[in-house]
Amino acid sequence: MSNGALARRRFLALLGVSALALTAACGNGGDDDTAAGGDVTLEFSQWWEPELPEGSLRALMDEFEEQNPGITVELLSGPYASTKEQVVAGAAAGTMSDVVGLDGAWVSDFVKQGSIASLTDVMGEAGYDDSQLAAQIQIDGATYMIPVVNFVYPLLTNDQLLADAGIDAPPTNRTEFAEAASAVNDLGDDVSGWALPLSLEAPNGVQNDVMSWVWASGGSMLADGQPAVTNAEVTSATEYIAELWEAGVIAPGSFTMKEQDKVEEFTNGRVGMVISSLAHVNTLRESNPELEFSVSAIPAEDSYTGERGIPYASWGIGIAENSEHKAEAWKLVEFLMSESVNSELSSLANAFPGNTESVPDFVEGDPVFADAFEIYSSGYPENEFTGLPVAEELMRMFGEELQRTLNGDQSVDEGLEAAQARWSAEF
Q1: CB-based contacts of 64: which residues, under 8 Å, 6+ apart?
Q2: How far apart are CA 8 and CA 12, in angstroms?
Q3: Residue 329's domain is classified under what CATH number?
Q4: Main-chain phi, psi angles of 218, to 5 degrees
Q5: CB 339 within 8 A of CB 355
Q6: What is the maximal distance between C-alpha atoms in the chain?
Q7: Do 86 and 21 touch, CB atoms closer than 8 A?
Q8: Quick one: pLDDT band at residue 253, thresholds 50, 70, 90?
């Protein structure tokens, strides 16, 4: 079976189609959540609100409150990296918000900690029919996260910078990408060809910006479910990134750069190309209405002609084990996963819905998302980190070895061998 077919099967089985404000010392409110008359306040921590049109998530919460008298939703919102830091801190302290936005890479760790509730149990108690859910992220047969909407991570290119550099179309293969990055870099004025976030504090750049080069050429970092980062596919992609680094076309500050930093660099016209989520399109347009950009498939190896793996990520949702209001929290999850609301949310986010009956309206009338949908349709969604044990730590380990390699402390082969040994110990 081809890598594309395997990925489709795994994706359809696992992901269907694919906090901030430190919940303070009081966590989810505890004793203070229940006011006179039995009213309940749910804290909902997520990174979604800043990436959606202004006021749109609050409007959905207002609609939920109208339908559920006695329940109030307090949104705790911030950028992805900050939200992740606060959710992790809340999980360790037992102060996680009642409802929490989740990345699939966090789930295994949170389950081991006992910090997120079994949604299988909560759904059972509510008598919920889950047949319309496109996916459920499970550990040992129990659901702990539901993907609300799913995003692909295409290549975003600054049309003006590429044109100024004499590049008339987004690159389609690695040679073209290197040439475009070099040409943009040569423009000067503190402009770089490509932004590569390799922060060890928030190591998802390994997933989105490094392994994406492997998946784009039909490759894999695993073999029979076990680490295989010394294989030819990962080696080729890592060598390519090292060549771009040596050429000086990668934006400075990579070793501490996080995802939101990458987006800011692109928004402000300081880099010509980034690999980024469609969720950031709204942010780009609002922050810099003058920015003209295109989306395209991540460049593959020059000789590759097969289907391309497309990185994806989900806005997942879960309920804290420490929440005293799990039944009310589930009502909010159920609301977001209902056909009409999920259609609206996926349309607002320009993402693929988590309800199999929902239909987003973003494809028609918006060339950026029409192109993204074509990219999605012509390839296959891939993210091999989803559901792996200690996925975040695996990213961090690889990032540490990649940083040492780029810093000249070891060769590509030595770095990959070290990463392989460290990953194998975790498996």
Answers
A1: 71, 73, 331, 332, 335
A2: 6
A3: 3.40.190.10
A4: 75, 15
A5: yes
A6: 68
A7: yes
A8: very high
Supply 204's token pair.
């998802």
178 and 139 assigned to the same domain: no
Phi first, then psi, for residue 16 (nearest 5°) are 60, -150
**What is the mean pLDDT of the segment spanning 124-151?**
92
Note down the domain range covering 176. Answer: 155-296+389-426
Query: What pLDDT is stored for residue 388 in this prediction?
Result: 83
Q: Domain boundary residue among 350, 365, 380?
A: 365
Please report, as a single letter, which amino acid is at residue 15.
L
Q: Which residue has the higher pLDDT, 117 or 28?
A: 117
Backbone torsion region of residue 128, taken as left when φ is above 0, otherwise alpha when ψ lies between -120 and 50, otherwise beta: beta
Question: How much helix, strand and coil, in percent to the nearest 5, is found in the chain?
Answer: 45, 20, 35
- pLDDT level of residue 30 (50, 70, 90 thresholds): very low
Q: Are 83 and 380 in contact (CB under 8 A)?
A: no
Residues 347 and 206 grouped into a single domain: no
pLDDT for 363 equals: 67
Residue type, 242: A
Residue 125 and residue 13 share a domain: yes
